[in-house]
Amino acid sequence: MTTAFNIVVCGSLVPDPLQTLEPIQGPMGPALKNEMMLPSVLDPWAGHSLFEAANLAKQNPGSKVTLISLGPKAKLQQLMMIIAQKVPFELVCLDGSASGFMDSREVAVALAGAIEKIPGLDKTKLLVFGGCSSASRDAGTTMQMIAEQLGISDVFLSADELKVQPDGSFRILERIEGGQYQVSTCAGAPAVIGWATGNLPEPPNNPQVGMTNMRTIMPALQKAQPAALKTGAIKFASVELPKQQRQTRIVKDTPVEEIAKEIVTWIKG
Questions:
Q1: Lesser CB count within 10 Å: N end or C end of the chain?
Q2: DSSP code at position 19
Q3: Residue at 246 is within a domain
Q4: Residue 4: closest CA among 63, 65, 58, 57
Q5: How many domains are there within the chain?
Q6: By the 8 A CB rule, do 195 and 52 touch?
Q7: What residue numbers bound the domain in which 47 lies?
Q8: Is residue 263 in a domain?
Q9: pTM (2 d.p.)
Q10: Range 155-193 burial, b when 16+ CB lie within 10 A, else e
């Protein structure tokens, strides 16, 4: 038995990890230096959840994948030119800051509100995917808050695998400590799943998929609604790069135990 799902993926852009990020105190609060000029990529964890969503939709005919992105509209347009070639999806765009200094609760409220406004959404078939963490909003709490806003009680975090059973239930593998997995069973939709890395590689570029996606992506970007994010929820006293420390001393004929003890003492000090 196959079930058609409404799969909503929450994911946005983050600065390219190869770039040097320098925090500054801007007029509206903490920000990154030259943030609008930095090259951007799809958040890695969100990317895994998008690929898993597309694979699940392919296995269950009639399913639909919707990507909800909160970020500056101009930069999202640049990003979608690349992501659109990976897998089929429809885009819902919220025009707002993608800064890692935003309050995750405000982000969750905005994303949940956008999900509820998706035309023809059937909550009995709703699966909300997203990253278990983020390369910018690394609070690790956004997906749980989205679930609370939507009234969904089945939440699974750090998932690496989801299999639909013959009776329509889900078998989910969640990462736990020690390199082991917790095996969970869910009766079915609705559910919220925060993905780790999953099991799928990044799909190759497909220009035909890209052209099909862009027919709906461009109108979605033009209709992007401003996200009403409150910047006063969190106060930052200061932002700065971590200080680098390097203390080198060359010694000879020192037992390994003594070296280890000295390193521990230095760390504690």
A1: C
A2: S
A3: no
A4: 63
A5: 1
A6: yes
A7: 6-226
A8: no
A9: 0.82
A10: bbbbbbbbebeeeeebebbbbeeeeeeeeeebebbbbbb
Concatenate the DSSP letters of all residues of 37-82 into one string: GS-EEE-HHHHHHHHHHHHHHHHSTT-EEEEEEEE-HHHHHHHHHH
Q: Measured over all CA atoms, what is the biggest interatomic distance in the chain, rounded to whole angstroms?
A: 73
CA 149, CA 155: separation in Å to the nearest integer? Answer: 12
In a domain, residue 79? The reply is yes
Per-residue pLDDT of the chain (269 residues; tens, 9 = 90+): 568 899 999 988 888 877 777 777 777 667 777 777 788 888 888 999 999 999 999 999 999 999 999 888 888 888 888 899 999 999 999 988 777 777 788 888 889 999 999 988 888 999 999 988 887 766 678 889 999 999 999 999 889 999 999 888 999 999 988 788 999 999 988 999 999 888 888 899 999 999 999 999 998 888 888 887 766 666 667 666 667 777 777 878 888 898 899 889 888 87
Name the 3-class secondary structure at 170: strand
What are the structure tokens assigned to 143, written together?
């997906």
Q: Which residues contact 130 (CB under 8 A, 6 or more apart)?
A: 9, 10, 11, 45, 46, 49, 142, 143, 146, 192, 193, 194, 195
233 lies in a domain? no
Q: CA 153, CA 77: separation in Å to the nearest integer?
A: 34
Closest to 84 (Cα-Cα) out of 219, 222, 224, 207: 207
Structure tokens at 234: 């969190």
Bond from prior residue into 190 cis (ω within 30 degrees of 0): yes
